[in-house]
Amino acid sequence: MVQAPTQPETLLLELPLDLQLSVSLAQFAVLAASNRELQLERTAKGELVVNPPTGWETGKRNFALIGQLYRWHEEYQQGEAFDSSAGFTLPNGAIRSPDVCWVSPGRWGALTAEQRGTFPQVCPDFVVELRSPSDRLPLVQAKMREYVENGAQLGWLIDPQNRVVEIYRVGLAVEVLANPAELSGEGVLPGFVLDLGRV
After folding, report:
1. Which residues on adjacent β-strands are paired with residue 169?
2. Can you give the residue ranges of every domain in the chain?
3. Which of 84, 122, 118 is nearest to 101 (CA)?
4. What are the residues whose beta carbons fall under 8 Å from the beta carbon of 86, sequence distance 6 or more?
5. What is the rounded CA–CA span in Å between residue 145 and residue 165?
6. How does 38-52 read in b/e, with b if 16+ C-beta sit within 10 Å?
7. Cα(98)–Cα(62) distance, rounded to whole angstroms?
8. Is the pLDDT of residue 2 over 50?
9. How many Å separate Cα 197 from the centre of its chain?
């Protein structure tokens, strides 16, 4: 008699915030494929980052962000836009998943089929991080700086708790706006204006 293979027992593991687990790029790809329900990232040093699910308020805000970028993208019809489920391999080796992002047609078109892979080897031109209540601000700010250092042209860190937006641009100091009504995509996303009242 042939026995059916048994499924491995699932164990829950709680990790302290100060404990760092390191994974290679290949290990990360396997881990991410095996845990699609988790939001995983990898730092440039190879440290595994597990982001918890967001609460309903953050999910609703993310939906509004994605919807507004989607409408612009449908009209503009250039480049590629993504939500937070997409991961990107940055030039420094980190694998990051911005809440919302866009890659210009030139940069996306220059990627080979291999570079597009599961986690495309490109830093998006435009990134948005929406801070949730569980996010530690210094860590999100460090991630925004990392995007710019790796090729992002424009980044918005939207912090609903403090009602501020930090704007990151190449070669410029971070601009902090208190409770802005809207944000402009500037020359990176021509014609895109984010209505923050809907976010």
Report:
1. 154
2. 53-198
3. 84
4. 97, 101
5. 14
6. ebbbbbeebebbeee
7. 11
8. no
9. 22
Give the bridge partners for 49, in sequence order. 41
Residue in the structure block whose two tokens are 């290990």: 27
Concatenating the DSSP letter of every residue in the chain gives -PPPPPPPPP------TT---B--HHHHHHHHHH-TTSEEEE-TT-BEEEEPPP-HHHHHHHHHHHHHHHHHHHHH--SEEEETT--EE-TTS-EE--SEEEE-HHHHHTS-HHHHSSS-SS--SEEEEE--TTS-HHHHHHHHHHHHHTT-SEEEEEETTTTEEEEEETTSPPEEEES-SEEE-TTTSTT-EEEGGG-
Q: Locate 146 and state its tokens.
A: 């990392």
**Which CATH code of 3.90.1570.10, 3.20.20.140, 3.40.630.30, 3.40.980.10 fits the domain covering 53-198?**
3.90.1570.10
- pLDDT, the chain, mean: 86
- Nearest C-alpha neighbor of 22 from the set 46, 40, 51, 42: 46
For 105-132, write each residue's pLDDT tens digit: 999 999 999 999 889 999 999 999 999 8
Report the alpha-carbon distance of residue 41 to residue 37 in Å, rounded.
13
64 neighbors 70 (Cβ within 8 angstroms): no
